[in-house]
Amino acid sequence: MEAIKFLEPRASVVARRSAIIADLVDLLPRECVVHEARELVPFETDAFVSYRRLPLAVVLPTTTEQVAAVMKYCNRYGIPVVARGAGTSLSGGAIPQEDAVVVGLSKMTRILEVDPANRTATVQAGVTNLSISDAVSPEGFFYAPDPSSQLACTIGGNIGMNSGGAHCLKYGVTTNNLLGVRMVLVDGTVIDLGGKHLDSAGYDLLGLVCGSEGQLGLVTEATVRLIAKPEGARPVLFGFDSSDAAGACVADIIGSGIIPVAIEFMDKPAIEICEAFAHAGYPLDVAALLIVEVEGSEAEMEAMLKEIVAIAGRHGVRTVRESQSATEAALIWKGRKSAFGATGRIADYICMDGTVPLGKLSYVLEKTSEIVERYGLRVANVFHAGDGNMHPLILFNANDPEDAARAEEAGNEILKLCVEAGGCLTGEHGVGIEKRDLMRHQYSDVDLNQQMAVRAAFDSEWLLNPSKVFPLEGRPAA
Amino acid sequence: MQTNFTAEQLADPHVAESEKILRRCVHCGFCTATCPTYVTLGNELDSPRGRIYLIKDMLENGRAADAEVVTHIDRCLSCLACVTTCPSGVNYMHLVDHARVHIEKTYRRPPMDRLIRQVLATVLPYPGRFRLALGLARLGRPLAPLLRRVAPLKPLAAMLDLAPQARPKPSTSARPGSRGSEGERRGRVAILSGCAQPVLDPGINEATIRLLTRLGVEVVVPQGEGCCGALVHHMGKEDQALAFARSNIDVWIREIEAGGLDAIIITASGCGTTIKDYGHMLRLDPAYADKAAKVSALAKDVSEYLSALELPEVESRGLAVAYHSACSMQHGQKITMAPKVLLRKAGFTVREPAEGHLCCGSAGTYNIMQPEISAQLKTRKVKNIEATRADVIATGNIGCMTQIGTATAIPIVHTVELLDWAYGGPKPAKLA
What we know:
A: Uridine Diphospho-n-acetylenolpyruvylglucosamine Reductase, domain 2; Uridine Diphospho-n-acetylenolpyruvylglucosamine Reductase, domain 3; Alpha-Beta Plaits; 4 domains; five-stranded antiparallel beta sheet; globular; B: 432 residues; Fumarate Reductase Iron-sulfur Protein, Chain B, domain 2; Rossmann fold; five-stranded mixed beta sheet; four-stranded parallel beta sheet; 53% helix
């Protein structure tokens, strides 16, 4: 199959490269501009490492004002801008292009305010997801959305992709926990959206910005909702003899109105990979595993568990094991959250992100296996089952171009399958470059045109992360 | 991650090894989060993932190292926090070791940089020279502020700042010979005297020898043993490092053949990390590969060895200890629990400073070569340690002791000094 295309670099921009760099060096402190050829190479990709493009330059501003100055400058000279948080995108959202200036937020890592009374925290966009929870933990709070990369990924990137995570089943994804942003528009204007309250008058612009993949502006600060930590939390392992049974069990739990904090699914290959890394005590003699986390008081946890165990029993659960200590619970989550990276121990992989209605989980799992098998590849499944947010990891050999092409093709088939099953292309990783050309399977031209019209209201020249999200054909002429 | 090496390139076993390491990396970026220099500088080029990419690009293109690559590799502390964090098991240690050798072979450093490295490599690994140098440093201390103002001379200022005010008296602990066990013999071990530690703080090995012999372990200080080679190894001076390793291996193998050894006890975790890697470092040397592997398998941090002795519980003495885990201890050797368990058993209240995974900035000669970043890390570390309001700081590496000791009024001792005290030895002088 054909490799995914990027926009052709604007020749006029590339030709002015040295002048642009000289100007950027004038605009920012010396250590905030990266432009030596060697030094640009590490910025050519993110965690979707099969695609790579060198940027024109990278800037690492420390303040909103510096970001605004860069945006204003780039807008004036028609230079594309690609935002980068920690570069952990699995859909290639932060992969640059030859005519683009990368604005990296990695130096903007200050926690600006923790407001326990209003249960909010205001942070710079380069703050990592986990460090928000770390910072507010002494006050008894945490920030709920917890992407598996939460150790490294930034809140700015989370907003760009409307990231989710295991605990989003109960608490919602980024958009449900975001109260306000400070954002730099394409022309350098700085605006504030939202505040410390849950909703604002007028259109839900904050909702629009969250998940806009760096195409509407560049978020430099965020105010997020804090949640009080529960009295207790306990992950419980449920082992099944088949993925089918585990999938049906998930649908049944949610269907009966029970919302645990998290329901995570692992199939046998994923269990083996994660156990080898984390030694979390996952059962190795089962075909599928659910990690169900309940929280609250002892009584609450017990009551909910009892109901879940009863449901699991109806689906022939083989083993039920409660974590016995905080250390064990931490290991169970460490294994789960490291699943993608740990897969790197056995093979290269690409990670899919389709979401399907819960009733279709078992069906899509079965079909996924068939598809991957047909391409002569292997698959490991580890995902947020309670949300129906599937993450088949397609294993392949990156040093074999044919294998890599087959993996990509198999991935595309799986995502189309998710759409056909009534789901969608992306649950939390965003469209990026990876799923861009599949958008036509999800949306009609009318849909896409309307979305692009909204985008154009913010960035009529298509300067912001321009190669992403919308298929290259059928775009309005800029 | 995809790699791009020719069959010809892969014929070099060092390149082949690095290629394997690179293939493991999935570019997930987790490592950036726990990297002290990324956290401090906020630039991916100064993160493990950035460095891995720079190294990959340099090796794939068969290129000589250049100023840009060298800058970012030099800023790496080799703390190996990334190795602890990495879910896919990328052996960053061996990759960056290879890169440093490549730099040393293919890159000509500016004259002052070259000179300082040469001085460090010629002085630090030799206790006699180092002792002499410390005396000179005391005389030179008034020059430090002047030196600090000239960029290429900053390392010299850092050196003067680190030199202790007073040199401890030479100790007999490093004198070759055997120290017999008291009572029934439970084991026989060799102890590494090392290079800088016996000059800076001979009390550490004195305490170790006292404690072990009291516990029924015969301790041997073998004749002819020297620096473990870590210092020059981290500078990419591979021939010199391997020469140190071979010489020590000869000494220990002789000792094993003479009287048998249950362990080679190391009281500086930086050295421990390297000695445990001798097997890898000499894997391509047919004359030494097996012997090196044997030595690596016998190498034990003193806390590991003591854990196996099952020491009795001691009543609390109401002293709060902030335990600082050296990077070479927690990341290099993956020893995380043993020292804390030992201290608790010995009656101390153990407190763990926040951000315990972050390096204090000592990192061998890093605090001399990269004084600015090192100072920022030191400040951050001391702040976290002082927040524990502990009475004393315990750690297992002389480098950290020197680094942290220059920035806090809380006394800092080696873990084994507290253990020796708790099990019948004298109170550490610093607590007097």
